[in-house]
């Protein structure tokens, strides 16, 4: 009996030693494989989506283009590669920050237009639209909520309300939905767009610590510029890139809505603004967002982005002058 017990104990000890030795190789291999998979998924999910196409009928009704453009922007935000990442709780969230910052830039433009639709563009005299009254609060829901309720679920409720408003616009027998496409009604939204672009230009200009004349920052003595910490340069850059991506698509819808009623000069300014925003979506050839200075050997991606956004801001300011 003692012999059998000793033999069994020896077998267990040997199995334990074998498991330890084997685990020293297997566990690091499994963890390394999971880390590599996470990095590859992060790289794939960080690829920015292309601008959607506005699928409009031959003769769209008033409001159809801008409403569809807003729905496109918010749907792409949720349905792109990897889905919506700003509220992700998986480990790759620790280093995958470019796309969440891009998403926040897109979201700010979507919120601004939703608010403009609710307050001005889609409002009948003395009465707000029942669906647009839902859209704006839904899009302003916390962008980092993971569950109970989730950000994606709340934004999809807003998109469905926007689609109901669009369906009523398209129904010739339903007069409950309205869209005010007189050029003067464009001014409310463009004013908020200009404020957003001015703030982006300021934050991007902080990468070199000096203001851009085209951004309208030289006259603001109460807004001193301080150099952006190197860890935040890419965050600001991708917020600006996402905001420009969304604004470009929304301005395409605005061109369809308001272009025929703008002055020739106003149409030129609108096209110039869109042209500058197109430059902000050029491919990034560097693996990092560089923060060079002067005429040194390193580029300054933030300064290039700031110049294009400042140019778009200037064109929109001139467009507003033609509206007024």
Supply database-style keywords.
about 325 residues, mainly alpha, globular
Task: Provide a descriptive summary of the structure in words.
This protein is mostly helical and 324 residues long. It has one domain (46-323). It has nine helices and no strands. The protein has helices at 2-45, 64-79, 98-121, 132-139, 151-170, 186-205, 233-258, 264-279, 301-323. Helix 2 packs antiparallel against helix 3, helix 2 (64-79) packs antiparallel against helix 7 and helix 4 packs antiparallel against helix 5. The longest helix has 44 residues, at 2-45. The protein is globular, with a radius of gyration of 26 Å.
User: What letter string, H or E per element, gives the SSE order?
Assistant: HHHHHHHHH
- Strand proportion, as a percent range, falls in under 5%
Largest sheet: none
What structural class should be given to the helix and strand makeup? Answer: mainly alpha
Alpha-carbon distance between the two ends: 103 Å
Q: What are the low-pLDDT stretches, counting only 5+ consecutive residues below 50?
A: 214-219
> How many domain units?
1
Number of alpha- plus pi-helical segments = 9
Shape: globular
Helix content: 55-70%
Beta strand count: 0
Mean pLDDT: 85
Radius of gyration: 26 Å
